[in-house]
Amino acid sequence: FQAEDGIRDQPRSRGLGDVYKRQRLYSRQGCCLCAGLEERLRQLDLGSLDLALVTVDIDHPDTPSECKARYDFEVPVLALNNKELPRVSPRLSGDGLLKWLVKHLPA
């Protein structure tokens, strides 16, 4: 869903006390690369990596202007724990994308 602050979140929980790392996807409406990456990420079992995908629409009026300035010409950008991950190839999907994520997760 799209929240009022420009963040779309897909809540997942395995029970009380579970902590998921939030993986942010900085994106914008109408960006085919952004939509494609979000779709491919949502097809993965991110819960197995203790990840929860949060999509931030940089053009939403409630998104801070510094966020839009930073990512305006860079979307889609993935970040984990406020650290940007390397750019994802648009050709990666399925197992390849999952292996890429595992490779770039902090130890």
Structural description of this entry:
The protein has 107 residues and is an alpha+beta fold. Helices cover 27% and strands 21% of the residues. The protein is built from 3 helices and 5 strands, in the order E-E-H-E-H-E-E-H. It has helices at 32-42, 65-71, 94-104, and strands at residues 7-9, 21-27, 51-57, 77-80, 83-84. The longest helix has 11 residues, at 32-42. The protein is globular.
List keywords for this structure.
five-stranded mixed β-sheet, 3 helices, 21% strand, 27% helix, alpha+beta, 107 residues
User: Taking strands numbered 1, 2, ... along the chain, how are they ordered across the largest sheet?
Assistant: 1-3-2-4-5
Tell me the number of helical segments per DSSP (H or I, 4 or more residues long): 3
C-alpha Rg (nearest Å): 13 Å
Share of residues in strands: 15-25%
Distance between the termini: 30 Å
Number of strand elements:
5
- What proportion of the residues is helical, as a percent range? 25-40%
Instruction: Tell me the structural class.
Output: alpha+beta
